[in-house]
Amino acid sequence: MQTLNVDLADRSYPIYIGERLLDNTGLLRRHLRAKQVYVVTNETLAPLYLPKLIEQLDGLQVNSTVLPDGEAFKNLETLNRIFDGLLESRHNRTTTVLALGGGVVGDMAGFAAACYQRGVDFIQLPTTLLSMVDSSVGGKTGVNHRLGKNMIGAFYQPQAVIADMSVLETLPDRELSAGIAEVIKYGLIADGEFFEWLESNVPDLMARDPKALAYAVKRSCENKAKVVAQDEREGGLRAILNLGHTFGHAIETAQGYGVWLHGEAVAAGMVMAADLSWRRGAISEEELQRIVRLIERAHLPIKAPADMTPDDFLSLMGVDKKVLDGRLRLVLLSRLGEALITSEIEDNLLQETFAACRGDESMAPPGAR
Ligand code: NAD
Ligand code: GLY
After folding, report:
1. Positive or negative CA dihedral for 262, 131, 139, 59?
2. Segments in the chain below pLDDT 50
3. Is 238 a catalytic residue?
4. Quick check: is 140 catalytic?
5. Which positions ≥6 away from 151 have C-beta within 8 Å?
6. For residue 30, what is the DSSP state?
7. Which of 272, 283, 306, 362 has minimal Cβ neighbours within 10 Å of its Cβ?
8. Residue 222 and residue 115 share a domain
């Protein structure tokens, strides 16, 4: 097992990465405040992992909410089911919420923990690659609104993140690829050496080589923890973690939540951000091609949906959380392995990017690949 630390003064916490960690009772119990535990999971994961987890919590009061599965349910209505369950089973302020699932469960359970009785402890038990490398670390929690992704939420840090790598055995291939999108992101924004490692090792990741996956999770979490420690509430720097997300969130919202996976939308969004960076002279054409190739080799989309016009993008990008005083801000590359946040966006170049990155009618939707 490897242990990293997210350094946030009195809100610091460990990230444990290893095999069969859900079987490790001591690890989990070490972070419980009292005898009440509330598990939030979904209908796909409950049959796979909930009985085992409950077994580890013998002697405690364990209750759970099993949510419907999917991004389409990441909303206030579904969130209320968690509050109903917590209240009906009389959980008090010393309870600990366990988020057993991917980013959807983690973001919702974390937000529920932030709100319930004005804040109770929670522990992330991420089960997707994406949630291990990104959403379970850093304390962003929340739900979607019909007018925008993740628009209702809170910064709220967990007590611990326990990434049991063995649960990835049951993760569908498409979800694995979606997680690799966020892994590639770290190489692009902060870690050129890791980008090169990914160019050599993406086949091993796709083949689920345990060593390669554990290395990718560790290196991604190290990169994320470093950024979060410097800028927990996204006053500035943390926004670089959103490379490709402004375009990607527009794709997710326009297509309907869950039609394109978050990681797929981010992948196409990163191609758009890289394309614009190239047009601004920050990276070479060869580097742009390397980025596009790596994303393609991870079986991720490299074009935006054919039915999205530049106006669709601009109107949806206008509700992005990075918009400041009505001005769009984008995360772009200053070079391969380094990002910048800018509101100085040349409209003509952005239009060229929209045109160059728009898929054609023959493009299969990601789920059909
Ligand atoms: P997800 O939570 O929807 O999980 C993907 C699918 O895989 C689901 O159907 C789930 O039931 C299934 N699944 C999960 N683990 C499994 C396993 N081990 N075996 C079999 N099936 C499994 O999607 P995700 O990609 O994990 O997360 C995406 C969400 O995360 C989005 O809502 C996004 O906004 C959010 N996100 C949040 C942050 C953050 O910082 N909080 C960062 C990135 C993404
Ligand atoms: N996923 C972006 C962030 O955590 O800031």
Report:
1. positive
2. none
3. yes
4. yes
5. 142, 144, 145, 319, 321
6. T
7. 362
8. no
Q: Whose CA is nearest to atom 3 of ligand 2?
A: 241
Choice from 74, 135, 151 to test ligand 1 binding pocket (greatest atom count within 8 A of CB): 135
Known catalytic membership, residue 224: yes
The last residue of one of the domains, among 170, 191, 218, is: 170
User: How much is the pLDDT for 146?
Assistant: 86
Query: Strands, DSSP E only, in the chain?
Result: 2-6, 13-18, 36-42, 61-67, 96-101, 121-126, 140-145, 148-155, 160-164, 330-335, 338-342
How many angstroms is it from 129 CA to the middle of ligand 1? 8
Enter the tokens of residue 346: 């040349």
Instruction: Please check whether residues 118 and 221 belong to one and the same domain.
Output: no
Same domain flag for 57 and 185? no
Active site residue 88: no
Q: Which residue has the CA at smallest separation from atom 5 of ligand 2?
A: 241
- Domains identified in the chain, total number: 2
The answer as to whether 123 is a domain residue is: yes
Atom in ligand 2 nearest the alpha carbon of residue 137? 4
Residue with structure tokens 């993760």? 171
- 249-277 pLDDT, tens per residue? 999 989 988 899 999 999 999 999 999 99
β-pairing, 2-6 vs 96-101, is: unpaired
Domain holding 259, by residue range, is 173-363
Of 143, 170, 197, the position where a domain reaches its end is 170
Nearest CA among 13, 54, 33, 59 for reference residue 120 = 33
